[in-house]
Design brief:
single chain, alpha/beta, Non-ribosomal Peptide Synthetase Peptidyl Carrier Protein, Chain A, Rossmann fold, Luciferase, domain 3, 5 domains, 7-stranded mixed beta sheet, 37 strands, 39% helix, globular
């Protein structure tokens, strides 16, 4: 059991007040340098305006108060605290702090239970569950430290029908948008499904955390309400009056109601047709209230993404998801709730305020309900790793946790390492930690780690990353190396590519724009054609993120709109922001780094905007000097401008992300700091360096095009000459000629090819050579390397074209059918007869290749042939050919190619089991050398 921090001391109110102010001042002192001015808090200081405490700061102070006095108050009370005097009142009225519950509650169900695979809408999903198990608990709502309430599938359906009836009685028609501004609770779930059941479009927007901000908060939602043409706003009772005032600003808004209002009407729901292509909800992206962008997500898109995630995790009803994530955000709405609803996984949910007021509640909920899946942004893991008192964790057991997703903001390798180290002694398996990547435009996630492998960190040369936009591996012990966390590989059915500014796909480890395709890709932004047009790059969706791919893993380096260019260097803000935030005197998490275009230099000025409470000239000068030292270390030169502002200068989104564009606008309007005079010669030098960098980039792109034209010309000439000679010469001579021409053509491309182990291929006798297939180059290179005695298996499609049919036959190809099962079996038997007769065969067991990295599942034909004929298999691994020429592309990017021939593997029998062992052994050897992920590893759980 966890124990209470201390018993409540019997102190008089005056002494309690002094102790409270001492705790507050001690906390404030930690955020400034030792030489800084002392800011003394009084009982009537405003926590936000006077002391600069944001939400996290307020909750951090209260954690210390709880630990000191052993007193607990409700989350609602804590949310309304505005001054230390309010804290004192709450403290004196509070109850003795209880230990967090450690008794275990079993919620999990049967692993083998079915799922609503045939459902085409979220409404059909709920209907399926109501028919299958109406009384099963789907949601457990936590209330404080001990209380909880349960919601069954039948309860949810009844609530939804009642809300739908109330909406329809009030005039809601199918296709009308309904804004939902509710905190986590039963009313939110009822409202969301009720809107769907009425044929409406749910638009979740975040609720106010404190009633003191209610009026301002509601007014700031007018942009979203207007963008979505919302007809109804469902909110809390306290917001009804303020919400009604919005009807004058939002012409479409007809009603402002509570869930209670709708339930009281007692109207019966009229069923309306809802299809897979209808909108399931509109997700407004963080920080978009000024220029709202609502992502359109249909039922089909949501279900496609949810099913892909369920398959990737291997989640079953035997799992339990524990969440504090806000339901107005896709990570909480889709990841925590709709996913678990779909797969019959029990959901244990608490409000974000409950987590923030006492973060240990998250971990104890996992302990108590034996949670197996949970998620949070990086700051949540940082909070638990660095802020919790060990006394709160006594008896904690996290051994049930098997998926700890980290997403929605940049993932810190250091945070992950510290979290794993601290909670390992509480049963946490480090392999549980799973950074993921997603965005609202794909519903939720597009990349997952391949199984429970823990955090994968790539250490790269920081200078080359900035200058050349290439992620060159570096030693983990190199202090100048940048540590970048892998976000996983594309989910099944999804594709990711890295593109340059000309929309050309880049090779591995080259930084560019992250783009994706997939079944849940949005069709665009709601009623915003301009933003929709900017979202698409042909058939691909531009995420706005920058990153690179290495061995099939996605690594993010920043946001394209946040990237700065100075002197030809591409600079990213995150690392410098984090470093500056750690400087004593600077408010952590309150730093924005951005670029300002210069009209005179053609480059960008790097600006650091940081919050501080320091007012002394000497102290501020010391901060500027220290920030510049960090800038020199991290971006290769000092910042062009450092602006120090008071608390709350740096603008943030509702979820706490830095709003760099808005902060930049604040700076450009002259509202922060003083802009220093430019130095003409320095700007000229910067302009020249920038021009040189851009010219070099243009030259590289032009060079790639020119090189591609050259390679295609060589290939065309070789093909024509080879075809003519193949027609004129007998087959034996044609094989020799074709190989000579192929070797010559490959040599003329001047591609550096390293070949290892070719001596392992037997000089005579039957053998089956199998290779991974990443590009059309594989066949040409392997054809040129192997002796003329080899027969290559080629796909039957080449036989349909008279030119390729003649050429391939003269080269010794055997055409095989890939799609007709009966014909494929007959082709396998024929090749087996050839092998038994002493033939040497070359086969690509993947059958085909795609643009995405990864070794696809191997077809069994080659290995059945080898086993039945009793001949050895020689595995061949190609590395680098996919980066040189990708599927469906024509641009060649010259780079090193490595071909590794493995040791011959002899079959241990002639049956199917022996063929399977051959396949697995060959695949393992190829994966060791090809540098690409295994795409046939199955379920990742």
């Amino acid at each position: 059991m966890a124990v209470a921090a201390q018993s409540e001391p019997a102190l008089p109110p005056e002494q309690t007040a002094r102790s409270l102010v001492d705790i507050l001042n001690a906390f404030l002192a930690e955020t400034r340098s030792a030489a800084g001015p002392v800011i003394t808090a009084t009982l009537d200081s405003l926590l936000e305006r006077d002391l600069g405490l944001d939400s996290l700061g307020r909750y951090e102070v209260w954690l210390r108060v709880e630990q000191e006095f052993g007193v607990s108050v409700s989350d609602d009370t804590l949310a309304q605290i505005e001054t230390p005097r309010d804290m004192l009142r709450a403290l004196l009225a509070g109850s003795k702090r209880h230990a967090l519950a450690a008794d275990v509650v079993q919620l999990a169900g049967d692993t083998a239970e079915a799922a609503p695979e045939a459902a085409t809408t979220l409404l059909e999903v709920l209907d399926w569950h109501v028919r299958a198990h109406p009384d099963r608990t789907t949601i457990t709502l936590l209330e404080g430290d001990d209380g909880h309430a349960s919601l069954s599938y039948a309860d949810l359906a009844r609530d939804a029908d009642a809300v739908a009836g109330g909406l329809q009685r009030g005039g809601l028609e199918p296709g009308h948008a309904v804004a939902i501004m509710l905190p986590t609770g039963r009313e939110f779930f009822a409202a969301y499904y009720g809107v769907l059941a009425a044929g409406g479009i749910p638009v979740p927007i975040y609720p106010p955390f404190r009633l003191a901000q209610l009026a301002d908060h509601v007014r700031r939602q007018a942009g979203i309400l207007e963008s979505s043409v919302a007809r109804v706003l469902i909110t809390v009772r306290e917001a009804k009056t303020v919400g009604s005032l919005l009807r004058g600003q939002v012409a479409s808004l007809a009603r402002v109601v509570t869930v209670g209002d709708l339930l009281e009407q007692g109207a019966k729901r009229t069923r309306v047709p809802v299809t897979a292509e209808d909108i399931a909800f509109i997700q407004y992206t963080s920080g978009s209230t000024g220029n709202p962008k609502g992502v359109v997500l249909t039922h089909a898109m949501l279900l496609a993404n949810m099913r892909a995630m369920v398959r990737a995790t291997g989640a079953t009803p035997a799992d339990v998801f524990v969440s504090w994530l806000p339901l107005y955000h896709d990570m909480g709405l889709i990841g925590a709730w709709l996913n678990t609803l779909y797969r019959s996984i029990p959901l244990v949910v608490m409000s974000p305020l409950s987590f923030l007021s006492r973060p240990a509640r998250w971990l104890w909920a996992i302990h108590r309900y034996r949670g197996t899946i949970s998620a949070g942004p990086n700051f949540a893991y940082e909070l638990c790793a660095s802020r919790l008192d060990e006394r709160e964790l006594e008896g904690l057991d996290l051994s049930s946790w098997r998926w700890a997703f980290n997403g929605a903001e940049p993932v810190s390798a250091e945070t992950m390492q510290r979290f794993a180290a601290r909670f390992k002694r509480y049963g946490l398996d480090p392999n549980t930690l799973a950074p993921v990547y997603g965005l609202a435009e794909v519903a939720l996630d597009v990349a997952f780690p391949p199984g429970r492998r823990g955090v994968l960190v790539d250490h790269v040369d920081r200078e080359r990353l900035a200058v050349e936009r290439v992620a060159v591996p570096a030693s983990p012990w190199d202090e100048q190396a940048a540590a970048i966390v892998a976000c996983g590989r594309p989910l099944a059915g999804y594709e990711i590519r890295i593109a340059d500014d000309a929309s050309r796909e880049l090779p591995e480890r080259h930084v560019g724009r992250v783009e994706f395709k997939g079944p849940s890709a949005t069709s665009g932004y709601y009623r915003n054609p301009e933003a929709t047009a900017a979202l698409f790059d042909g058939d691909w969706l531009d995420t706005g993120d920058l990153g690179y791919v290495a061995e099939g893993e996605l690594y993010l380096t920043g946001r394209s709109k946040d990237m700065m260019t100075r002197g030809g260097h591409n600079l990213y803000p995150y690392e410098l922001e984090e470093a500056v935030g750690s400087v004593p005197g600077i408010r952590k998490g309150c730093v924005a780094v951005f670029g300002i275009p210069s009209a005179t230099s053609g480059t960008e000025r790097v600006v650091v905007l940081a919050e501080t409470r320091e007012t002394g000239e000497a102290e501020r000068a010391a901060l500027v000097a220290r920030i510049n030292e960090l800038a020199v270390d991290l971006i290769g030169g000092p910042a062009d401008e450092i602006a120090l502002g008071p608390p709350h200068t740096v603008l943030k989104t509702s979820s706490g992300k830095i709003r760099r564009a808005a902060s930049r606008e604040l700076y450009e309007r002259g509202l922060v700091g003083v802009r220093g005079p430019g130095v003409w010669w320095d700007l000229t030098a910067l302009a020249l360096r920038s021009a040189r960098g851009r010219l070099a980039q243009w030259w590289r792109n032009a060079g790639a095009i020119a090189y591609s034209c050259y390679v295609w010309a060589v290939a065309a000439i070789a093909a024509v000459v080879g075809f003519v000679l193949a027609v004129l010469l007998p087959q034996r001579a044609a094989r020799q000629v074709w190989r000579a021409i192929t070797r010559g053509a490959v040599g003329l491309t001047r591609v550096p090819i390293t070949v290892e182990g070719i001596e392992r291929v037997p000089n005579s006798g039957p053998v089956v050579v199998v290779a991974n297939h990443a590009s059309y180059l594989d066949g040409a290179i392997l054809f040129g390397l192997l002796p003329a005695r080899f027969t290559f298996a080629a796909k039957e499609e080449f036989e349909r074209n008279p030119v390729t049919r003649i050429a391939f036959r003269k080269a010794g190809a055997f055409f095989v059918e890939r799609f007709d099962g009966a014909k494929g079996v007959e082709d396998t038997r024929e090749l087996s007869r050839l092998a038994k007769a002493g033939a040497a065969l070359a086969i690509f067991p993947e059958g085909t290749f795609t643009r995405m990295p990864g070794v696809r599942p191997f077809r069994m034909g080659a290995f059945v042939i080898a086993a039945e004929a009793g001949v050895p298999v020689v595995p061949v691994a190609f590395r680098g050919t996919r980066s040189m020429l990708r599927a469906d592309g024509w641009i060649f990017r010259r780079g090193p190619i490595r071909v590794v021939f493995g040791e011959p593997i002899r079959p241990q029998g002639r049956d199917w089991a022996a063929a399977v062992k051959l396949r697995d052994a060959a695949r393992e050897e190829i994966l060791r050398h090809c540098g690409e992920p295994d795409l046939a590893s199955g379920v990742l759980g």
